[in-house]
Amino acid sequence: MQIILFGAPGVGKGTQAKILSQKYNIKHISTGDILRESVARKTDLGIAAKEVMDSGDLVSDDLMGGLVKETLANMDYKAGFILDGFPRTLEQCNLMDGIFEELDIEKPFFILLKADTEVIVNRLTKRRLCSKCQTIVNLNDIADLNTCPNCNANDSFIERKDDKEEVIRKRLRIYREATLPVLDYYQEKYKVAILNGTDSVEMVTSNIEKVLTGND
Ligand code: AMP
């Protein structure tokens, strides 16, 4: 099963991808996570991407196409996967079509999660990463704002540089201008499922599963 999870930053793609990846035992490919790991490891890709990412801009299509191709080619992609964060431009759509054809990957499920801008801004400005156990938390959802609910570490939360409000608004603008045209492209080619990303996590998962099983 091949799934493309599509939607604005902060709409819940990563959360859903992690759940589905465990449930169906398929690999979660998050281009944002791969880039952040590359930045942390100071690889050539990470060095090239760091400033662009911190400022909320998009990394070049060439780099992204190469990264996705390499990731897929080095895994058992026939077993299925969830793509989270790619394609993000029309050029990336072309690159993806080429990669899928070359690797003989079947037509993916294309799922769009939607949410209003202000809901996303609120979610992302409250998003934190526990530096001890890497759990992502939202300050809206936890009682003790200084303690990680997963590992109980104190004062361990860090904020992503691109989760500052002005950078979030820039990322959302780029999403509208550069990424949303991808939706039209796919709507012409495939059936696209459009789901509400502001429902509860469980409800969104259940709605995605209805799409995957053809019961939507
Ligand atoms: P994300 O975690 O998906 O929000 O991605 C974080 C950042 O990584 C984005 O703001 C971009 O700078 C970069 N990035 C991730 N995926 C892509 C992509 N497909 N194309 C270009 N830049 C990307």
What is the gist of this entry?
By secondary structure, the protein is an alpha/beta fold. It is 49% helix and 16% strand.
Characterise this structure.
This protein is an alpha/beta fold and 216 residues long. It has one domain: Rossmann fold. The chain contains eight helices and eight strands. The strands form two sheets. Strands 2-3-1-4-8 form a five-stranded parallel β-sheet, with helices on both faces. It has a three-stranded antiparallel β-sheet with strand order 6-5-7. β5 and β6 form a beta hairpin. The radius of gyration is 17 Å and the shape is globular.
- Estimate what percentage of residues fall within beta strands: 15-25%
Helix % is 40-55%
Q: Going by CATH, what is the homologous superfamily?
A: P-loop containing nucleotide triphosphate hydrolases
Biggest β-sheet strands, sense, barrel? 5 strands, parallel
Number of helices: 8
